Amino acid sequence: MINSDLTPWTGGRGLATYARDPFTSFRREVDRLFNDCYAPAEGRSFGGANGEGLWPSVDVIEAGPEIKVTAELPGLKLEDIDIELHDNALTISGEKKQELKGENGGRAYVERSYGRFERTIPLAAEVDADRVEAKFKDGVLAVSLPKNEKAKEKTRRIPVRPQA
Fold this sequence. Notes:
Immunoglobulin-like, 4-stranded antiparallel beta sheet, 3-stranded antiparallel beta sheet, flat
């Protein structure tokens, strides 16, 4: 076999052959394996490679006079969570520490899971920092951010006219 038979862009075979080429598939798998091995520990702890599966999952809802932020933090305790409001952005951060010990037939085992997370949510409206409330129950964090009076004044409806 000559070398030009192995290259997908020669011989008029086109891109379809490139996708089915066993060497290309093998190389992609090896590349993925190395990317997974050398990914930062934070990425492996709470999400997939390349930033997928960001943790925690967050819902942001602007409901009338306030913004409601809900974050799912399963397995965390209240003392593991830190919330800050700075420059009209809400930052939720914390550290997950989990240790599982057990004994099975005279053999002891210990499993540990540690990882730090941080999620910053930019807010579209100014909020009244003195009236912000946060509640945590059953692994769900709920933050209520009342809008500032200045933000209500800055919001106005703009009429849209047809172009002449």
